[in-house]
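Annotated sample (chain length 322).
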Amino acid sequence: MIQRFADWLVFEVLGLDAASRWGAALDFFLYDSIKIVLLLFVISALMGVINAYFPIERLRRYLMTHRMYGLQYLLASLFGAITPFCSCSSIPLFIGFVKGGIPLGVTFAFLITSPLVNEVAVAMFLGAFGLRVTLIYVVSGILLGMVGGWLLGRFRLESLLTDWVRAIQKQSDAQTAEWQQEHIGFWQRVPAILLESWKIVRGVLVYVLIGIGIGAAMHGFVPEGFFETYMAKDNLFAVPLAVVCAVPMYANAAGIVPVIQVFVAKGIPLGTAIAFMMGVVGLSIPEATMLKKVMSWRLIGIFFGTMTLLMILSGYLFNWVL
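Output written by the structure step:
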């Protein structure tokens, strides 16, 4: 429905050509803006209900005090794999995890895997490259989330979250404690939950719109033949160049798989093409802009730097294995 509305407004009401760059960019901006704002509101409301009725504090303490030998990172990565979100759409749920006090490394494991692996991308990958390549990609995406989440968790980066995050965490804890003490019923809590969800949406709305605007501006404006020239098989630095060039772009996995298929058909090594895909769907300037409300620039830099390095290593490994 959102896509049809965006198409109707841009191509019928405004009369822009669907094949034009400006038409595609505006359509992309409207669709993603509406989708992510709605996601953020709904997920914030759901997390409000969870915080009110489920022992999130107990789960938080359990994850932080018990030795799970990496199982928490596997579970977060698997949850990321079954959620059909792009990198920007994953951020509302990431904010919900942070709001609930889930350890930061575990939330990063979800944020990393969610855009990389989803059922649509897997189906398209299976049709384009076969079962073996698809299995390697899916397993590597989950492992990337686990390893990246574990590494970032070991860095103890909680102090680099913004004051806004700490404020909503404290407010959420205080509100939950008050409801539990006064035994307030569900329907009495709904207005407060919805109001808090709207406050979260309002707090990040500017960052969301700026981020999506950047992604829309870049959508379709890359010169034709650019990547085929610089990601050739004989270029030793093709993999890191592919990942670095991918970061300014923004697309979901389903949208980039056909592009990867074209790259491979034109002679670009499969590992290099997959590394490029990981960079596009897993890291982006729009994502960084949205995360700025939650993280300091230093934390964003650490996250992007760690993931860029892991994606480059994955690309070289893919080229060696495949």
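Annotation: The CA atoms of residues 29 and 213 lie 6 Å apart.
Annotation: Residues 119-154 form the longest helix (36 residues).
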